[in-house]
Amino acid sequence: MHAAFDKTMNHRHESSPSVCSVGRLVAVIASALALSSAAMAFQIAPMGSAFESKLTNETENSLATVAGRLGVLIKGRVHEEITQIGMGCPIEPGTLAQDLSCSLRDLPFATPYVIYGVRWNDLPPFKLSPDEGNCTYLGKSCNVSQTIRFSTQPLCWYCIFKDAEKKAQSQPIVGCSKAKGSLRGNVMTRSHFGDLQFLHAMASEEGVHPGATRAKVLDWLEFAWKVSSREIKHDAFLRDIDNATLKEHFGCTQWRVSDLYILGRQDKLLPYLHHVAFGSVLHTVQDSFAGAHASRERSPPSGMCQDTDLAHPRRIVEFHTYGAQDGSLHDEQDSREAMTRVSAADMWPDAVEATRNLSRFYEDRALWSQVQPYMQCLFELSEERNDSSPGEPYRRR
Q1: Is 320 helix (H, G, I), strand (E, B) or coil?
Q2: pLDDT, greater one: 127 or 33
Q3: What is the pLDDT of residue 58?
Q4: In sequence order, what DSSP letters do the residues of 342-360 get, joined into one string?
Q5: What residues does each domain of the chain span?
């Protein structure tokens, strides 16, 4: 599903490390992160845009900037490319596999705020309570007074990430649930390994009926779309929003909408929150077409989605769960090669086509009631549906 880094906002004013020490530290992190893999869908780049880089306010020698330039942990700019194409980057379906022009950074078709949102599902900002700041890696512990982002506290971020990856093998990572044996997580660990995997169109555990996962995904998309269409205001408390999935997973919090999406950056991003929310919608939908996230029928049914003039996509057979998947097999499905494999002279990859359609709704300022029929169609279940599993092609042997 996701692993990547964000930029920082609050910074500790420490003396700049030497170039050699930064290089050595980055090399260590690069080696370590290369071995990790969370439940991820289409890949994202280490830094989303020049705008995000400016939000760090860090020196040239800062570890986060160097790590971002090296592309540690994150590989290709696949989500970003899909989004740029969907929002107007001029390219033809038949040349997509060879033409990388829409994968370049800082293209003008999708705003940097939409790109920020596309990356949010993988990189949600989070805070640690004082008793959660004891994760230490390479001698560095977390500074719990700061919002945690990879670029702010990369060693802390990585330590928390790897700790959650290990613990998730034996304990469910949750937010509001008080189930016996569960482990309380933050938005990042819950998104990658826990109860928020619906952000990536996946089930959180094996044996879940696809209808239940579909309901969570659609609830999430309803919420995110309503934020993007301004039907839900930035200062609304999540617990007060009439949405079953939000109440289940965020009802115990004191968070407002802006806390979820742009924690620690409200001063810069609040006017653009609707763009960020739309980007997060796109990420979930795009992920649903990654094979390790969900299996779909080989071909789409004939005809159009009900109450629309949009072609029906392939129906979902099964939502997968990450816990027992082989990380390398999962990652292959997240690559650009996997995304472009189905490209033809006159047909876009499914994720691109869905992004193009949703972008038109967004540009028309469509309300949720107008986009809902298409969104339901995007996640329509096959008659031959299965409960969630890792998926046999991706199962760890």
Answers
A1: strand
A2: 127
A3: 42
A4: T-BTTB--HHHHHHHHHHH
A5: 198-394
Residue closest to 257 by CA, chosen among 287, 290, 225: 225
Q: Tell me the C-alpha distance between 312 and 156, whole Å.
A: 44
**Residues forming beta bridges with residue 137, ordered by sequence position:** 140
Mean pLDDT of the chain: 81
The type of residue at 131 is: D
Distance between CA atoms of residues 371 and 360, nearest Å: 10
Write the DSSP assignment of 221-275 as a string of letters. Answer: HHHHHHHHTTSS-TT-BGGGSS-HHHHHHHTTS--BHHHHHHTT-HHHHGGGHHH
* Half-sphere exposure at residue 139, Cβ-oriented, CA atoms within 13 angstroms: 2
C-beta separation of 33 from 72 below 8 A: yes
The residue type of 305 is C
| CA–CA gap between residue 200 and residue 214 (Å, rounded) | 12
CB 202 within 8 A of CB 223: no
The pLDDT tens digits of the residues spanning 305-330 come to 999 999 999 999 999 988 777 666 55
Go through 372-383 and write b for each residue having 16 or more CB atoms within 10 A of its CB, e for each that does not. Answer: bebbbbbbbbbe
pLDDT of residue 52: 72
What are all long-range contacts of 267-274, with beta carbons under 8 Å and residues at least 24 apart?
268/9, 268/55, 269/113, 269/116, 270/234, 272/111, 272/113, 273/227, 273/234, 274/227, 274/228, 274/229, 274/230
Q: Which of 212, 351, 219, 222 is nearest to 287 (CA)?
A: 351
Q: What whole-number distance in Å separates Cα of residue 6 and Cα of residue 122?
A: 9
- Other C-beta atoms closer than 10 Å to the C-beta of 366 total 17
163 φ/ψ sector (left φ>0, alpha ψ -120 to 50, else beta): alpha
Residue with tokens 């020490």: 21
Please give the pLDDT value at position 344. 53
Query: What would the pLDDT profile of 108-124 be if each residue is shown by its tens digit?
Result: 999 999 999 999 998 89
Distance CA 322, CA 192 (A): 9
Does pLDDT of 394 surpass 90? no
User: Which pLDDT score is estimated for 122?
Assistant: 87
Residue of 392, 386, 231, 227 lying closest to 324 (CA atoms): 392
Cite the DSSP H helix spans in the chain: 19-34, 50-56, 63-70, 78-86, 112-120, 154-167, 187-193, 210-228, 244-250, 257-262, 266-269, 273-287, 327-333, 336-340, 350-363, 368-378
Report how far apart, in Å, the C-alpha atoms of 303 and of each of 179, 310, 316, 377 are: 44, 9, 17, 12
